[in-house]
Design a protein that fits this description.
Radius of gyration: 27 Å
CATH architecture of the largest domain: Orthogonal Bundle
CATH topology of the largest domain: MetI-like fold
Helix content: over 70%
Strand content: under 5%
Shape: flat
Number of domains: 2
Number of strands: 0
Length: 285
Amino acid sequence: MTALSEPEAPVAPVDQSDRMLPRLLRARRRDRRRKLLWSVLTPIALLLVWELISRVGLLDANFFPAPSTVLLESTRYFTDAKMRGDLLANLQASGIRLGVGFVLGSIVGIVLGLVMGLVPVVRYALNAVITATYPLPKLALFPLMIIFFGIGDTSMIALVTLGVFFMVCINTIAGVTYSPPIYRDVAQAFELPRTTRLLRVTIPAAIPSVIGGLRLGFGQALIIVISTEFVSSQDGIGYMIWNSWQVLNVSAMFVGLAIVGIVGWLGSSLINIIGRRVVPWQDDD
């Protein structure tokens, strides 16, 4: 008689998700590195082209100095004590106007945008006003700000606040009203309380649009700050750019323009980082 063989132990099924997750994470990291690489290489390539056509004389160096000349000019702001002090004072002046106006405009825009998105009566009452006043050039309203708030930082901050408000408010309304209907349907099907529906469904669905509005609002704030400093200020980066042009110090003017570009990039990047933390399910481009 043959001995009976013992039954084999059942083989545990392999969880495919344990294998797929590391692959997805590695693919996502590669994708981010590729995006970062392109975002760095493209500006460098453009600067090299600019340097080349400036060196061969296709551009007038008096008005379009080579990037290396601008870089050399920028080093003087670190080696010369007076120039360093002036630069820090201008950065502080513009930073206060930009920061205060952006924060105030963002708060008012988000709050009013949520109210208009959630309460149809308020949306119907204010929609025409916002739609009619949004296209007005913000710099054209600067004389009104001066009439109301006087000449100085207050009028500039008020104009920045107004410009940021429109961008953030309109995007917040869109985020609330155009969120996927399935979210509301599921919330109603489970009979979630109104407060829970607001905090766990409506607001999270609107956050990606709010983040987009904040990015646009920051850019708008930077444009308004620099523009108002052109015409009504004795300090700030905008004043630095305009004054450099008036005395034909073109290299210093380009230094100011480079600072504006760097500040805009840093602000947008910071908002993107915050957005990824707040809405990790949203793909970032």
